[in-house]
Structures are given as structure tokens and as C-alpha cells.
Design brief:
Length: about 300
């Protein structure tokens, strides 16, 4: 069935997983001749072009994807890489303004907890004892650490119910601080409603997360419940810190990315656009680093 676009697209997906990027881009190209306005295949096609170092053609694929699917998280993330390699710095900063779009805040301890230590202890115990906690889950960026499933899907939310309220308020404050800008690829795509995905991450010695984005979400974030002393220290290696702006590896990349490092603190909440690449720096400590990440997934 050579006129069935999905066959070409699926072949492209498999070839990309096999790292046969030239063959993959040809498969996507053939599928897009049949269905030229398919957002995910357009994004996938652009990604194969990034692997080949064809930055200009990749940028064209991502812009075409964003025309038919404004706010497409993967296309936004990969467009930033193409802009970076093409040295189009003005457009890059407009899309990935790390100082403006990555926002830090402190929570107010909810009732009925006595203080921040009490609230964080409840969150840590909830994560450490959660039945879905898994070491290095498959198809995930957590390395040398544990991660839970979606904590919102559980019957007993426990302290997560209070954290959801804090996250929701933080998201409203974020929106108030960054008003709607029609036509902007991020600020112009704000959803009216969202649902939450929330999961706990427990990192031990050399635990970290490699560079990644959150493809299904509009806004993402992280709350820090337990931080080892080595992460609190202001060492030159930034052990256990979170870094924004460094994308995944592409073999032909030459541009040095602009990054922002943020030091985790207990009680700190960070919110950022879901398309901004981020990672954690490995660390050595006997005490585990426990954080709770979350996505705001558009519903309308």
C-alpha cells in the first residue's frame, strides 16, 4: 500500500530507532508527500535532519510542524537546537529565555503540617513507600535512581493532594507573571484547563537525569523535598543541581548552548516551559535526593 502515509511514517520511526537517519528521513519525506500536514511525522523528520547536521532543513520542518500544530512541544524543543546551530540568537532567546521563563518560588506550608520539615517528611515517606517506585524505569531518563508512576492516579494521594494545590497556585502565579502574548510560540499557547501528571524521583550516589523534555505538557516543574548536604554546598561542580538549556547530543553540533544552573533547596519549586531541555548533575552522597516532578497537560 504505497499510498498509505502511516506505513512510511512507521518505517521512519523504526529506522530512526536503528540510527539509520538518512533512510529514516527519506521514509518520512515519502509519507509527508502523501500527508504533508501530519505534525508528529514533521517533527520526527526534522529530528533526523538534526542528526545529519542539516540545520536549515530541520528548522523548516519544525516551523512547518508548528504552523499546523502550534505549541507542539517536541518541535519547539528541536527548533531551538536548529536556531542555536544557525547562530540565530535573537530568535533563540525569544523562544528559550531561561532567565524569564524558568521561575523559582518558595511554598507556603499547607495545613495540617507543623512546618516545612513536617510537610517534606510526609512527601518523602509517601514516595519512598510508594508501590510504583522502580529503579531505572525503562524508556526514562532517570539513571542510578528510582522513580514512581503517576502519583495522581493513586487512590490514596496523602500529602500529594496538598502539593497539587500548591502547584496549581504556582501555575496561576506563573501565568500572572508572564501575560498572554498573541503569536508567541509559548506565551501565546496557554491552555484554559490542565490536568496533572506527578511523579517522585529518588536519586542516590551518581544518580541523575540526562537531558530531556516533557513532550505531552505545556508547563513542567519540580519540587524539592529532601536535599543532601553536598547539593546544598556551592561547589564548582554544582553536584545535584538542575541545569536548563543543554539539549541532547547531536554529532554535528558545534554551538555552545546557553545554560542556567539552579541549586535545589528544600521547599523550592521551579516551573518552566516543557520544551526546555533540562538535566541533573550527578552527585555523591549517602543521603538520597528526593524531588517531585510534575507536568501540566493541556485539556483545552
Amino acid at each position: 500500500a504505497p499510498s498509505a502515509a502511516f506505513g512510511h511514517f512507521n518505517l521512519g520511526n523504526v529506522l530512526q530507532r536503528l540510527e539509520r537517519f538518512e533512510d529514516a528521513s527519506e521514509a518520512y519525506r515519502q509519507g509527508l508527500e502523501i500527508e504533508p500536514d501530519s505534525p508528529q511525522p514533521l517533527a520526527n523528520y526534522g529530528r533526523t535532519l538534526l542528526w545529519r547536521g542539516d540545520w536549515a532543513a530541520a528548522l523548516g520542518a519544525f516551523e512547518r510542524c508548528l504552523t499546523v500544530s502550534p505549541g507542539h512541544t517536541g518541535a519547539l524543543a528541536q527548533k531551538a537546537i536548529a536556531l542555536q546551530e544557525l547562530r540565530r540568537d535573537g530568535e533563540l532567546v525569544e523562544l528559550v529565555d531561561l532567565e524569564r521563563f524558568v521561575r523559582l518560588g518558595r511554598i507556603q506550608v499547607p495545613d495540617p503540617y507543623a512546618d516545612l520539615t513536617d510537610f517534606n517528611r510526609a512527601l518523602v515517606e509517601h514516595c519512598l513507600n510508594h508501590p510504583t517506585l522502580t529503579y531505572e524505569p525503562s524508556d526514562n531518563t532517570t539513571e542510578k535512581g528510582y522513580q514512581t508512576g503517576n502519583l495522581v492516579e493513586q487512590v490514596e494521594l496523602g500529602p500529594i493532594a496538598h502539593l497539587i494545590e500548591l502547584i496549581n497556585q504556582g501555575a496561576k502565579d506563573y501565568c500572572a507573571a508572564l501575560p498572554l502574548v498573541p503569536g508567541h510560540l509559548f506565551l501565546g499557547q496557554r491552555p484554559d484547563k490542565w490536568r496533572f501528571d506527578i511523579w517522585g524521583t529518588v536519586l542516590g550516589a551518581q544518580g541523575h537525569q540526562s537531558a530531556h523534555i516533557h513532550r505531552d505538557a505545556w508547563l513542567s516543574g519540580c519540587y524539592y523535598a529532601q536535599i543532601p548536604d553536598v547539593v546544598r554546598a556551592k561547589g564548582e561542580g554544582h553536584d545535584g543541581w538542575i541545569e536548563f538549556g543543554r539539549p541532547q547530543f547531536y554529532p554535528h553540533s558545534k554551538a555552545e548552548p546557553r545554560v542556567r544552573l539552579c541549586q535545589p533547596e528544600e521547599g523550592l519549586i521551579i516551573l518552566f516551559p516543557s520544551y526546555i531541555y533540562h538535566r541533573t548533575i550527578p552527585f555523591e552522597a549517602e543521603v538520597e535526593r528526593v524531588s517531585i516532578a510534575f507536568d501540566l497537560i493541556p485539556e483545552s
